[in-house]
Amino acid sequence: MRRNTTVALVSLGLLLGTTGCDAFLTGTKLSENPNLPTAGAIQPLFVGVQAGQFTFQEATASMMTCMWVQACGATNGRFVEQGGHYVFGETSNIAANFGDWLQIYGGGGLVDIRRVKALARAAGDSTWLGIAKVWEALTIGTASDLWGDIPYSQVDT
Question: Is 66 part of a structural domain of the chain?
Fold first, then answer.
């Protein structure tokens, strides 16, 4: 008898506890996915810009420049190991691949830089606006130094 009473009281307590707390599975922290933002803030977008542009400035484009000025033939040169992974010939142009152009224009490139600029203008934040302008000048300046006349004003329109 005592066991039945204990089971009944525990069951009643659980039943009342679950009906009294109906809002514990709702709310913004449960119904919104933090990994899928609908609008980007300046700081996370800028991290993507930095990552994309660090890769662009230090990868194939700088290796190609090093090859053009014949400065990467040292035994412990920075690009000797990277050069061993590619096959180079008279007709090869390693920097004509699509990855470099994606880093200039795509995500982490000019598209995100202009998005950072727009958000900074909307927020009235001159510091972030200035930083984004410098990154845009560095990115487009480097690309135009490497490839000459490249699309700029038509991008992201």
Answer: yes
In a domain, 19, yes or no: no
| HEC sequence for 8-51 | HHHHHHHHHHHHHCCCCCCCHHHHCCCCCCCCCCHHHHHHHHHH
Domain count, the chain: 1
Looking at the domain assignment, is residue 8 inside a domain?
Answer: no
Q: Could you tell me the sign of the dihedral formed by the alpha carbons of 100, 85, 67, 63, in that order?
A: positive
Give the CA distances from residue 65 to residues 21, 72, 103, 120, in Å, rounded to whole numbers and listed in that order.
65, 9, 17, 34
The boundaries of the domain holding residue 100 are 41-147
Tell me which H or E stretch contains 93: none
1 in any annotated domain: no
At residue 114, the 3 state secondary structure works out as helix
DSSP letter at 117 equals: H
Q: What is the pLDDT along the chain (157 residues), one digit of tens a residue?
A: 778 888 888 887 777 666 666 666 677 777 777 777 777 789 988 999 999 999 888 877 777 777 777 776 666 666 666 555 555 555 555 555 667 788 888 888 899 999 999 999 999 999 999 999 999 999 999 889 888 888 888 776 6
